[in-house]
Design goal:
Largest sheet: 2 strands, antiparallel
Shape: flat
Distance between the termini: 44 Å
Order of helices and strands: HHEEHH
Structural class: mainly alpha
Strand order of the largest sheet: 1-2
Radius of gyration: 23 Å
Number of strands: 2
């Protein structure tokens, strides 16, 4: 890759323009815009789905392969976190407690036993 030429600068400028216009579309509109009910309902589940898609593979895979040994601290941390969540589901701090319990199980096993 050499230096910047005219076509590359034009491409970058075009991508910036498209990105700015598409992201500011809702702010430039004169009238108030409302999402359909089905889209609003779907957005309620989007953070959970995105978090699951990122976290779930990390819990059961090591270097791109399924974990085949029980000597993995992540498996026990997930099990403890899930058990705590279902035990305290109605409580206000169920999510924070899940994280704390999972890390309380994970760290001693990972640091202490080297799992």
């Amino acid at each position: 890759m050499g230096g910047l030429d005219g076509w590359m600068l034009l491409t970058i400028a075009g991508l910036v323009l498209i990105s700015v216009l598409s992201r500011s579309f809702f702010f430039l509109s004169q009238s108030q815009w409302q999402l359909p009910h089905w889209a609003q309902r779907g957005l309620l589940y989007a953070p959970i789905a995105a978090l699951s898609a990122v976290i779930a593979p990390e819990m059961v895979m090591t270097e791109g392969h399924l974990t085949t040994t029980l000597a993995d601290a992540r498996i026990f941390a997930v099990a403890a976190g899930v058990a705590f969540f279902f035990w305290r589901r109605g409580a206000g701090q169920a999510v924070l407690g899940t994280i704390v319990v999972g890390m309380a199980v994970y760290l001693p096993l990972h640091i202490g036993l080297g799992w």
